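Thread: 1,6-di-O-phosphono-alpha-D-glucopyranose complex, take 2
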Amino acid sequence: MAQFEEVSKQSILHPKPAGLVLHYGTAGFRSNSIHLDHIMFRMGLLAVLRSKKTKSTIGIMVTASHNPEEDNGVKLVDPMGEMLAATWESYATMLANAEQEELISALNEIIEKEGIDKSPEASVFVGKDTRSSSASLSQAVLDGVHALGGHSKDYGLVTTPQLHYMVCCKNTQGKYGDATVEGYYKKLCQAFTQLVGNASNRTDDQKHLCVDGANGIGALKLREMISHLNKGLQVTIFNDGSKGKLNHQCGADFVKVQQKTPTGIQVNPGDRCCSFDGDADRIVYYFTDSQQVFHLLDGDKIATLISTFLKELLIQAGLNLKIAVVQTAYANGSSTDYLENTMNVTVRCTKTGVKHLHHAALEFDVGVYFEANGHGTVLFSKAAEDKIQQLAQDSRIDDERKRAALMLQSTINVINQTVGDALSDMLLIEAILAIKGMTVEQWDRIYTDLPNRQLKVKVSDRRVIDTTDAERRAVSPAGLQEAIDQLVKTYRKARSFVRPSGTEDVVRVYAEADTQESADALAHEVSLAVYRLAGGVGDEPKPL
Ligand code: G16
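Output below.
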């Protein structure tokens, strides 16, 4: 096939370092950027095959999200804007690791296994974040797409959720929205303006929000979006990339894990603040109180706020729709308890990775999914959307039901249902706080988090750790879970688990307990168990 000759020719310009093995992780490939040129070229090839298979446009985002600036990575987007189907992750790994001379046979293997008809045209949308390596790596993606005869549209600098949105818009022939960045701003901002129209007059102070852009793409895109907001929100952007380094001592991951205010942000007690991550698919909120104590409102608190709001609207609208919240093992025990026992909503726990949460959320009429790290969104089933729309147009219902139905409609439009989206989540949270007349302190008081700590342990091969029960228990290496169980027993209200990260070369340790000292001590002791039983490298973990 002539196309394969082109692939062979082009692949020489994107050579695979012999012996390098990389795996498709939690959200695609991620590594130091110097290892990724061949991966990008090959993911361009894979996207063409996926596009032919699904007869739809596929997305490729060049980003390493929360990782440091020197890393990069690639996320593949399926037709409805969701993450690449799990069955194709193994093809991605196979293609990425095929030695140079095996590349064509690897492509043929995928074509045969999937029964791919080569005749349909292929279309791939490409986006990139602000990393210095992203320009050449996204060119490598485009080279791969073109080598296999695919058509491409390069969106250049966009947030990851914006690219997911474009893919969905294209494949729904515009029903989800216009496949342009301008169309995205218009849809979300119009819905936000309609929603806050339900709030009583707000002062400039109440409209004010401090945003830490993690020195990344989110800051650039937020600046573009502001002009569409009709002064409904007054934003001060810190860490906008003009001087600081991407994700360095700032951004959602830093704030969540370190449980402190990022550097580069000047705020007063009580100021409402939020942080995006490096590709703006995560958001966390926080404030410092008059005693200078830092308060974090993470993905769990966001899920609680949003699901409370939605549940109240569904009741007001008189709609009997099943709402559920999907979390992971990282969810704070207090949040799960509050959701299940005070709010009486169904709670599901899945493995880490939005692809898992997204699938679980699809099972409900209204599925709110959030990882504690601030990655999440809300999914409405087609039936739920239809019912809401019918109600909003029904002239026989009373004003309260009508208002609730219209608010639900605007809520659907402000949300990016394709994937967690910091910009969209921020607009929804700001609208909810405005409508409820709620301060960030009041939101924080809905429930009190159990003190918790997250640590990282370096081991020689993190894949020796295998887990089960939505990653809450380790099944290997031998003795590790027993050691964790013993340690947990020595603290009150304690819980701990370990899992290999799918984005960084570390094992993650999570612990919570009744006091911060206990959570810290437990996290440290579990880290030591990992270090000793799972092949720790470097110095032994030190107490905090
Ligand atoms: C990605 C995934 C998230 C996940 C995070 C950390 O986020 O999309 O679902 O929670 O990695 O994963 P891990 O603990 O396996 O390293 P992002 O924002 O970095 O793309």
